[in-house]
Design brief:
single chain; alpha/beta; 2 domains; Aldehyde Oxidoreductase, domain 3; 6-stranded parallel sheet; 12 strands; about 290 residues; TIM Barrel
Length: about 290
């Protein structure tokens, strides 16, 4: 699994700039036609639902990329629990600039907070077990760094960041190599010889028998794919000392506790990023702060 995920500032700016270009297009025609360019004011960012906050740094970046003169204040830090009415932060300056940034800022903040919130629910459901909740590569194209950051804010961990971040022999690797008459032991030996030294080798399996074969062939981690909790428990019981297990496929909030109680070390869940519900957060202009400069 990846270590602490640090996102370079320039990469965040690139992501934000693409989102702003997509949203603003030729300009905010509505605000430009209605609101004086000299109108100043303040807006507050407020939570409208219970959840875990993530993405305040990206939200701040959106405002400043639109207008560096805006003053942005973050009142609640990422990873914190929030509820309806909580003021997450505030922004002051040109009202036209605030409105240009509003949608993109909220898109990031709502989406990343949704990921952190869902991750937190999975982590809570498995509390007291030895299982670690991790994400997958099933992320929104272009947003992987941010989405995996949000998983960490929810208390989860990151699986592979990209294909160069770990060795995972999946079903299609095996399907491509079987016609070459290679055994699983041959395949593991081959990847251990040719891949960077020191990397753990993980193998995906779909049965208890395949799990035992992978462990005996030299796998460091055995991924139990779409297996029932009963099958997972049997597979875990048959693993040699030092071989870790990962559960994946068909895992949801209703069954994750049962999966964790099988004794698996890792539970990977694609739904943390690929089908998350945005957390309800709003931006509200404070009328009493409005003035012409």
């Amino acid at each position: 699994m990846s270590g602490n995920l640090k996102i370079p500032d320039d990469q965040i700016e690139d992501i934000v700039d693409l989102a702003l270009a997509e949203d603003i297009g030729k300009g905010d025609i509505t605000s430009g036609a209605l609101i004086p360019a000299t109108l100043l004011g303040k807006a507050s960012i407020r939570a409208k639902a219970d959840g875990v906050l993530a993405g305040t740094g990206v939200a701040r970046k959106v405002f400043l990329r639109v207008d560096p003169s805006l003053e942005v204040t973050v009142l609640i830090q990422d990873g914190s629990t929030i509820g309806p009415g909580d003021t997450i932060g505030a922004v002051s300056g040109r009202v036209t600039s605030i409105l240009r940034a509003e949608r993109v800022m909220l898109n990031f903040l709502q989406h990343l907070s949704g990921i952190a919130t869902l991750t937190g629910r999975y982590v809570s459901r498995t509390e007291g077990t030895s299982a670690t909740i991790v994400d997958t590569r099933k992320t929104t194209p272009g947003l992987r760094l941010l989405e995996k950051y949000a998983v960490r804010m929810g208390g989860g961990k990151n699986h592979r960041l990209h294909l160069g971040d770990g060795i995972l022999i999946k079903d299609n690797h095996l399907a491509a190599l079987r016609p070459l008459c290679l055994t699983l032991k041959d395949i593991i030996a081959k990847v251990r010889q040719n891949a960077p030294k020191g990397m753990d080798i993980e193998v995906e399996v779909t049965s208890v028998e395949e799990a035992r074969e992978a462990a005996e062939a030299g796998a460091d981690i055995v991924l139990l794919d779409n297996m029932s909790p009963e099958e997972m428990r049997r597979a875990v019981d048959q693993m040699p000392a030092g071989v870790r297990t990962e559960a994946s496929g068909g895992i949801n909030l209703n069954n994750v506790r049962a999966v964790a109680e099988t004794g698996v070390d890792i539970i990977s869940i694609g739904a943390l990023t690929h089908s998350v519900e945005a957390l309800d957060i709003s931006l509200e202009i404070e009328p009493q702060t409005l003035r012409l400069s």
